[in-house]
Amino acid sequence: MADEEVVLLAAKFSTFAERAKIALAEKGIKYELKEEDLNNKSHLLLEMNPIHKQVPVLIHNGKPICESMIIVQYIDEVWKDTAPLLPSDPYQRAHARFWADYIDKKIYPNGRMLWKSEGEVKETHAKNLIESFQTLEKELGDKPFFAGESFGYVDLALIPFYSMFYTYESLGNFSMTVDCPGIVAWAAKCLEKETVSKSISDPQMLHEAIMEMIKKVDS
């Protein structure tokens, strides 16, 4: 597959694009990264993802694949001989997909609402976010990674949100270390992998970008 063309359309601080970056890094795939300005989307992005017009988009030999976890599954299936991300057992694969879907339905929306709401509504989303992390913590148990001894699909789905922990704590007025110590320890284990640590955003820089965005909205 040495002659293949692999391009990733991403954007700075995109947790969803970071999933694709980690998957490609895990597989050792060389690719061209094209960072999009989402306020001035390129013709290529609009052509490759005309429905949602969002990143990430993986372009493999000219063909686009959209949506982060669909991209991750595609990468895992195409480059299946290296660092498998999904289990081989059908039940375990379904189980992993369930928890990745849970992350998208619980972690992302509740976290996002911490800077889009105020008062009791904000407090409710903070409570829901903590409870969602605690549910994931129970699923993790005492395993180093969600699938056991190896970094896999569910870990990859969740770890980009590590960069948001500081912002969640700041805006939600809670402590991940106090409320979800197992998730914090799991994140530290994931960050030992260069494929992860070099693919995700710096928490402080991301926090500053979000606070700047909030100021612009409020002004």
UniProtKB/TrEMBL annotation:
Residues 89-217 form the GST C-terminal domain. Pfam families: GST_C, GST_N. GO terms for molecular function: glutathione transferase activity. It catalyses: RX + glutathione = an S-substituted glutathione + a halide anion + H(+). Keywords: Transferase. Residues 4-83 form the GST N-terminal domain. Its EC number is 2.5.1.18. Transmembrane segments: none annotated. One of its GO terms (cellular component) is cytoplasm. GO terms for biological process: glutathione metabolic process. It is an enzyme of class 2 (transferase). Belongs to the GST superfamily. This is glutathione transferase. It comes from Manihot esculenta (Cassava). The lineage of its organism: Eukaryota, Viridiplantae, Streptophyta, Embryophyta, Tracheophyta.
